[in-house]
């Protein structure tokens, strides 16, 4: 594990504490993407969105940097709140002011929740915006009726003309993975107890399908979730014989490639400093005081 | 920067400033894609000159990150000298190229319609990301009707983003010229708290006063009660020997307490403060007994080298020079916002006493 570094391409850090940042940094997480989503309850006015988007490109970016973690984000109107159509209209009006800012690597997370016409309109509008500005799209797949939601989200993205190389479908599982791979999009998996994937299932899927189009993330948020999902799953993969280069693909390289299409990731910076730092930390044990990186058992299902 | 002989502040010539910014961006180390940037900025500047909406102005500030050169502006010594001629107190040495490109846009907006500038800038502040905030705050020193922006700049002192705090408060003549006493004292005190370089607050020596000295001494007492080190630059706030007898007694007692402590940088700061208070005899004593470490500092102080720039040597080390998008990129754990955090051992879980 000692030479590994991780890119967690889905982490809602505004909901997390500095303890989490510390543990992530210690476990080798060097960069992450924080996609815009809902707050666990619906917002009532557009000003709340302005302040939220603003915190993603401001305070949270700075907060992450204090722990040596590069913070990128995705800006979008989530599917749940798309159902408040008056509010959705206001949000889409101010969205372009944030979507084209520095360090915004995608439009996201967008897609379906209940697969309503209102959700579809907001999804389509944002896909068109992404296409016009040549942006990457991060799609949230629904909890209920997931398989149909994913197929539909891919179909609509295709209709709008989104390049499959710039489409990441998130929160996949055993039942949905094939549709995503067949479409040529990136298949992301969220390692999140109870509702999404567990580490062991992720290991099995990687063995079955290979790592070429897989992306592992934590989606850690305000629910019972784990900001160390990615390193923990990588550890389990290695222990169970998944080749190191495949582990690197799922927990670093593929996310960097997919979201790198935004032009907002400085590859040199991402490669240079953090890697050197991390190796120094581990080899000299100067900061960790002889302690192995803090990576425990895999995330339970 | 000389501490006492600066000419009075005058508003800079915006035409000359525009030319300076264009020249500096064109000459910066990262200007490899200069043609792409030049083409883009030409169009945007023309749009701003013709009267852009607030929304277009905000989007131009954002989009600059996609076209401007990356990394430090690194102006030549000649450009730095020219900057000082344009606006006394302005020091662009630590600017990024992107900040210069953004300030260029703001200046163009200022030229186009100075009347509506305040509302346009407030809109830009509302939607700004971290890097845009830095550029916006850096621009305030150049704008016509600067007193209109004093409230905004005072707000900038309330930020918890150290990058933004420094862009607002350091290397610019704005605070000295336009802050009221409350804002001025808060800028200076917060610089100590977040370990921003107080010596780079332009005009500090001209505006240091007894109220600031009192606040600083109270802070020193509070730090000692908590078992924490006193910030070395705190001793800058001792001001001059012209305070009343009681105040001077308190200052000297606090300085002596520091000199008997074991924090080397803070002791150096206390020695410089003796110079500020004209304590020649005590300094001669230290020079004689202070060995190779403290002796030379006392010697400097005796020669009058105790102005704010003399405190640069005991100021917190600067973070890595900006390498990419924003200042903060070069910062790892060595530049935590809250001082003292770096002293704690990240590998232990025992309850500590982080400052």
Write structural notes for this entry.
The complex is a heterodimer of chains A (301) and B (355). Chain A is of the alpha/beta class and 301 residues long. In chain A, helix 2 packs parallel to helix 3, helix 5 (85-99) packs parallel to helix 6 and helix 9 packs across helix 10 (229-239). Chain A has a single domain (6-284), classed as Metal-dependent hydrolases (TIM Barrel). Chain A is built from 12 helices and 8 strands. The two termini of chain A are 22 Å apart. Chain B is mainly α. Chain B has 2 domains: 9-179, no CATH class; 204-319, no CATH class. In chain B, 55% of the residues lie in helices and 0% in strands. The longest helix of chain B has 18 residues, at 34-51. The A-B interface holds A 22, 25-26, 50, 54, 57-59, 61-62, 65-68, 70, 94, 96-98, 100-103, 263, 266, 269, 273, 277, 287-289, 291 and B 55, 58-59, 62-63, 65-66, 70, 126-133, 160-164, 323-326, 328-329, 331-333, 335-337, 345-348. Chain B: Residues 345-355 have a biased composition (Polar residues). Chain B: Residues 312-355 are annotated as: Disordered. Chain B: InterPro entries: EboA_dom. Chain A: InterPro entries: Metal_Hydrolase, TatD-like, UCP005295.
């Amino acid at each position: 594990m000692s030479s590994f570094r991780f890119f967690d391409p889905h982490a809602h850090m505004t909901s997390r504490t500095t303890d989490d940042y510390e543990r992530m940094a210690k476990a080798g997480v060097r960069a992450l993407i924080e996609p815009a989503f809902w707050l666990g309850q619906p917002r009532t006015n557009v000003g709340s969105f302005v302040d939220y988007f603003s915190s993603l490109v401001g305070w949270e970016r700075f907060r992450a940097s204090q722990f040596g973690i590069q913070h990128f984000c995705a800006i979008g109107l989530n599917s749940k709140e798309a159902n408040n159509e008056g509010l959705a209209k206001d949000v889409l009006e101010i969205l372009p002011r944030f979507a084209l800012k520095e360090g915004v690597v995608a439009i996201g997370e967008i897609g379906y929740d209940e697969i309503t016409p209102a959700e579809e309109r907001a999804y389509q509008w944002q896909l068109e915006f992404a296409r016009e500005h040549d942006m990457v799209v991060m799609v949230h797949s629904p909890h209920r009726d997931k398989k149909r939601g994913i197929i539909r989200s891919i179909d609509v993205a295709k209709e709008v003309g989104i390049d499959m190389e710039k489409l990441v479908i998130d929160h996949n599982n055993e039942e949905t993975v094939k549709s995503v791979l067949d479409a040529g999009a990136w298949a992301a998996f969220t390692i999140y107890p109870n509702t999404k994937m567990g580490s062991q299932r992720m290991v099995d899927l990687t063995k079955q399908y290979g790592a070429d189009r897989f992306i592992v993330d934590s989606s850690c948020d305000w629910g019972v979730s784990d900001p160390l999902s990615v390193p923990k799953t990588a550890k389990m993969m290695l222990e169970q014989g998944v080749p190191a280069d495949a582990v690197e693909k799922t927990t670093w390289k593929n996310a960097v490639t997919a979201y790198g299409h935004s032009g907002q990731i400085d590859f040199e910076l991402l490669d240079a400093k953090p890697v050197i730092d991390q190796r120094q930390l581990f080899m000299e044990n100067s900061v960790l005081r002889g302690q192995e990186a803090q990576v425990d058992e895999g995330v339970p299902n | 920067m000389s501490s006492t002989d600066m000419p009075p502040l005058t508003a800079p010539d915006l035409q000359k400033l525009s030319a300076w910014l264009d020249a500096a961006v064109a000459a910066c180390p990262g200007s490899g894609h200069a043609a792409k940037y030049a083409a883009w900025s030409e169009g945007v500047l023309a749009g701003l000159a013709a009267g852009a909406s607030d929304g277009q102005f905000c989007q131009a500030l954002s989009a600059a990150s996609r076209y401007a050169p990356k990394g430090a502006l690194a102006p030549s010594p000649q450009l730095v000298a020219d900057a000082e001629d344009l606006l006394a107190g302005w020091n662009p040495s630590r600017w990024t190229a992107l900040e210069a490109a953004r300030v260029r846009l703001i200046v163009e907006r200022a030229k186009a319609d100075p009347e509506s500038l305040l509302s346009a800038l407030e809109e830009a502040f509302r939607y700004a990301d971290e890097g845009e905030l830095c550029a916006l705050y850096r621009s305030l020193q150049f704008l016509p009707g600067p007193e209109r922006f004093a409230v905004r700049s005072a707000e900038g002192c309330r930020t918890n983003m150290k990058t933004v705090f420094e862009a607002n408060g350091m290397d610019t003549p704005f605070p000295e010229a336009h802050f009221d006493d409350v804002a001025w004292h808060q800028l200076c005190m917060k610089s100590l708290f977040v370990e921003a370089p107080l010596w780079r607050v332009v005009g500090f020596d001209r505006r240091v006063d007894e109220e600031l000295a009192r606040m600083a001494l109270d802070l020193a007492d509070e730090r000692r009660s908590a078992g924490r080190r006193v910030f070395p630059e705190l001793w800058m706030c001792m001001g001059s020997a012209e305070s009343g007898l009681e105040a001077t007694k308190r200052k000297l007692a606090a300085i002596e307490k520091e000199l008997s402590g074991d924090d080397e940088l803070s002791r150096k700061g206390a020695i410089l403060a003796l110079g500020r208070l004209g304590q020649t005899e005590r300094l001669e004593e230290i020079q004689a007994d202070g060995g190779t470490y403290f002796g030379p500092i006392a010697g400097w102080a005796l020669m009058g080298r105790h102005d704010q720039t003399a405190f640069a040597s005991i100021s917190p080390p600067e973070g890595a020079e900006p390498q990419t998008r924003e200042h903060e990129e070069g910062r790892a754990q060595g530049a935590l916002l809250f001082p003292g955090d770096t002293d704690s051992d990240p590998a232990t879980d025992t309850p500590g006493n982080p400052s």
